[in-house]
Amino acid sequence: MKINDITQLLEAIAPPQYQESYDNSGLIVGHPETEVTGILFCLDALECIVDEALQKGCNLIIAHHPIVFKGLKRFNGNNYVERTVIHAIQNKVAIYAIHTNLDNVLYRGVNERIALQLGLEQLQVLVPKPGLDQVGAGVIGQLPNPVEERVFLQQVKEKMKTGCVRHTQLLNKPIQRVAVCGGAGSSFLPFALAQRADIYITADFKYHEFFDAENKLVIADIGHFESEQYTIPLLYDIICEKYPNFALNLTEQNTNPVNYL
Questions:
Q1: Do residues 48 and 253 touch, judged by C-beta distance below 8 A?
Q2: Distance between CA atoms of residues 118 and 146, nearest Å
Q3: Measuring CA to CA, which residue among 58, 77, 56, 68 is closest to residue 27?
Q4: Considering all CA atoms of the chain, what is the largest pairwise distance in Å, rounded to the nearest integer?
Q5: Do residues 150 and 185 lie in contact, with contact meaning Cβ atoms separated by under 8 Å?
Q6: Residue-wise pLDDT tens for the chain (261 aa)?
Q7: Strands, DSSP E only, in the chain?
Q8: Which CB contacts under 8 angstroms, 24+ apart, belong to 153-156?
Q9: Sheet holding 248-250, edge to edge
Q10: Out of 3.40.1390.30, 3.40.30.10, 3.10.129.10, 3.40.50.300, which CATH number does the structure's domain 104-226 have?
């Protein structure tokens, strides 16, 4: 089995053309015709992940976040991006990223996985891409029954395994219609408001952006890593269905750069 066999399987679910213009999804390090010895799934392909891949006999890393976003003009090892790429090339470890194209598909995408984790039903794309069916950013859905705000926030904290939920003022009304967006989703708040969500769960809201809720919904910022962590088993499951007996590994490294005291 070659790298190309694996990437074609992933891209059948999340085609590369669905990624955003700023993104860099795809095969970042390596050659598509290389025979695969094992796969390591992670959120961030860092130096420690390359080390883990080597320890586990894996020569392919499948990550959600691309290690390279901007063009690299030098490879001197002066930052973690350069060091990771050098380390991977020297040890013949390929790195593949499937980022906003996986964010932008409803079926088997990042946001569907979050929604299922939270028990949402009747899922629809929050920010549809014109002319494309079930493609776009975020998801909006319904809880089977209304839940009191504080109770639901506690459920979110537990189910999303986050050390902190930053939220706007509670509105003293039940939560049932829920919008979610993995990663940095503050720019999509107007769509959550327009679709009358009771709460919008995402990450990376800035201080002044919390005011934009205008007491019309609750914003719940659960952290970037926390919102996307279930992408790792999602990718594993996609490959495992086709190659159940192959050497597939979930990372044991927590690459979240944010810590809570």
A1: yes
A2: 13
A3: 68
A4: 57
A5: no
A6: 999 999 999 999 999 999 999 999 999 999 999 999 999 999 999 999 999 999 999 999 999 999 999 888 889 999 999 999 999 999 999 999 999 999 999 999 999 999 999 999 999 999 999 999 899 999 999 999 999 999 999 999 999 999 999 999 999 999 999 999 999 999 999 999 999 999 999 999 999 999 999 999 999 999 999 999 999 999 999 999 999 999 999 999 999 999 998
A7: 26-29, 39-44, 60-65, 94-97, 121-128, 136-147, 166-167, 175-184, 199-203, 218-221, 248-250
A8: 153/218, 153/220, 155/118, 156/118, 156/201, 156/220, 156/222
A9: 26-29, 94-97, 60-65, 39-44, 248-250
A10: 3.40.1390.30
CATH class of the domain whose range is 3-101? alpha beta
In 3D, which of 11, 5, 2 has the Cα closest to residue 235?
Answer: 11
Q: Is the pTM of this model over 0.70?
A: yes
What is the crossing angle of helices 231-242 and 110-117, to 10°?
110
Sequence spans of domains, the chain: 3-101, 104-226
Q: Are 32 and 7 in contact (CB under 8 A)?
A: yes
Amino acid at residue number 155: Q
